[in-house]
What we know:
It is a single chain. The protein has helices at residues 27-35, 85-96, 108-115, 121-132, 136-146, 149-173, 184-187, 189-204, 206-214, 228-236, 279-293, 307-311, 352-361, 378-396, 402-420, 426-433; strands spanning 4-8, 15-23, 45-50, 56-65, 76-83, 101-103, 216-222, 254-260, 263-269, 297-302, 321-325, 342-343. Helix 6 (149-173) runs antiparallel to helix 8 (189-204). The protein is α/β, with parallel strands linked by helices. The protein is flat, with a radius of gyration of 29 Å. The model is unreliable at 242-249 (pLDDT under 50). The longest helix is centred in the middle third of the chain and has 25 residues, at 149-173. Strands 3-4-5-2-1-6 form a 6-stranded mixed beta sheet.
Amino acid sequence: MSDTIYALSSGALPAGVAVIRVSGPFTSEVLLKLCGSLPLPRQAKLRSIRNRNGDVLDQGLVLYFNAPASFTGEDCAELQVHGGRAVVNAILAELDVIPGLRHAEAGEFSRRAFQNGKLDLVEIEGLVDLISAETEMQRRLAQEHSSGHLSKIYDGWARRLTHARAMIEAELDFADEDDVPGSVAEKIWADMRALKGEISDHLDGAGIAEIIRDGLKIVIAGEPNAGKSSLLNHLAQRDIAIVTDIAGTTRDILSIDLSLAGFRVQLFDTAGLRNTDDKVEQEGIRRARLTIDQADIVLLLADTPDGFVSLGVSQLAEKPIIRVGTKIDRSRLLWDKATVDVLISTQTSEGIDRLLDILADHLPDLSGQNALSLPTRKRHMSCLQQTLAAIDMSLAQSNRGLDIQAEYLRQAGDSLGRITGRVDVEDLLGVIFSEFCIGK
């Protein structure tokens, strides 16, 4: 924390503009050496950036943020320069020889923001997700977290737990005082039961958050030559899988990521399901069945009306199955509407929009939900489950005394505090900040 750190904070080079960030106690000295003067805080100034010999390296905008009103909570600066490799490398080389400076590690700027109380862990993780967001729903979920909305919910719950403990302690220690409210059971436990219900409802949203963050896993399955790889290529709008008339062409798992109604969708192409003596194809079929077991939805393809029957649909997976009749451009077979959900042709695109509409029906319904304050990570859910269990134990120990109940509420508060980083999270910090890129 005593070092002054620097790094390229913008994207890959070359670029139109490159942003070099500096943070630490020597920031003002760095600007004086490179630019000859210190700009007023939060005012962009055009400056020539020079090396120690006075040679101009580049000309760009310079911003200075004095502590504590900065991202990291300490003196910070940004050099917005031309994004050529030679320009950036020259400036970084000049920073490297200034005493007291070193190159930042991955996530170190954000870690300093956390350690200086500018951001909590939920907001930090939201920044990670915001940087890596690929779909509109991922962006909305990450924005909700990085802006502190989810943290406010957890902080509110923590305050209620603290208030409950304070009232219990007051009744235990000062029961004979007139200004101390009596009967904690009437005033506190009703709120704790309500809090238990709120946390439980909050945890119910974890499934939606997982789909938003990690994507809906959709597996394309069926007999060989049913049109699985053709459908994958059509939806990807490029040739991902090899398509031939030879049965067993696809032998490994292929996948693509799509955006469907703002949600991330992972689409998997699998080997054709059939009995075969080919060892390699057998391994492909084994992997296909494993992938089907992990799927959220199975697209079961057949190019003939009796194709679904031969596969034994009920044995494939106990999860939503969409039966897709394929290659309808080749022949107009009599499909039984009771056995098929949609008919498609990848050659003419007939039925593809209908298939996408059916898939969209399986996405979470967020209508009427203005905020996405949902738990997204396993550590969030684990801490919330521990909090819930501790509150439940406190409520169940009414016959053992208020001191025992207060201890369980303390444990609940500690579990809740670990989510935002208020309590005992030192061992988590290395894992969390390692997810960041250099310069953030």
